[in-house]
Amino acid sequence: MGNTNKESWNKHASRFYHEGYLSLDDVDFESYDYPTDKDLNIIGDVNGLTVLEIGSGTCNCGIALARKGAMVKCSDISIEQLKIGEQVAKKAGVDITTACSDMVDLSFAESKSFDLVICMSAIGYADDFDKVCAEVNRVLKPSGRFIFNTTHPVIACVGATELWPEDNADPNYSYVGPMQWKWREEDDFFFTTYRMKVSDYVNMLVKNQLYVKRMEELFPISPLPADCDFDEDEIAVRTRFPSILVIEAIKITV
To answer: In 3-state terms, what secondary structure has residue 89?
Structure first.
């Protein structure tokens, strides 16, 4: 994920946690403006499963699964986010373990040790999705599942002109590569995310023997929550184009 993102998330960790609504009851796919796992049932019953959350941030999704009976380990590049997550887990009365690590390097985990690996709204920070898939394959048990979500490549290119023109992002769907942006214009730090096409995600998964079982393209729910941050123009765009891509893949050894 790189040192820039590591330093930026360490600076942003407390603000992100205190300004956002991070539920411990369900796994969300970016925000509660979109369907959650309660709606999609893509993660399903995790009672008794070993679960690794990579790019966990403050561990809210991992904690939600721990509350449902999973044995959870959360990893993230930001130690400050993990510290918050450990405190939140303690207050919630659940046991999780943590590891400070980039998602392209899961060397803290033994091979074939997890039933499920999840990555919620963080895969776009990985500068090498191929390496992520290789590591996920290694740590998954046979028939284990990898579930992740990311900004939909379609909204990334549409948003370049209609939602975030100030970021000067490439508006072409064919663009694959880095994109730098700030959470707030006044911040003295920035984040780097990496755009890919839908076919790139699928092909790299398959290359690493992770076969797509299910794919969802999410639009905002209706009616939207009262505290939704979207203005009318953004709602108009997001109801026309899918905003979130959710993929479930299964490890198949051939």
So the answer is: helix
At residue 236, the pLDDT reads 94
Separation CA 208–CA 249 (nearest Å): 11
**What does the alpha-carbon distance between residue 84 and residue 6 come to, in Å, rounded to a whole number?**
15
pTM of the model: 0.96
Output the six-digit token pair for 91. Answer: 């207050």
Q: What is the set of domains in the chain, with CATH numbers?
A: 3-151+198-251 (3.40.50.150)
What would the pLDDT profile of 183-217 be if each residue is shown by its tens digit?
998 999 999 999 999 999 999 999 999 999 999 99
Structure tokens that stand for 83 in this block: 């510290």
Alpha-carbon distance of 161 to 168, in angstroms, equals 8
Q: Which residue in the block uniquely carries the two structure tokens 């953004």?
A: 234
CA-nearest of 183, 218, 142 to 16 is 183
Give me the amino acid identity at 58.
T
Task: Decide: helix, strand or coil at residue 238.
Answer: helix
Cα distance between residue 73 and residue 138, in whole Å: 16
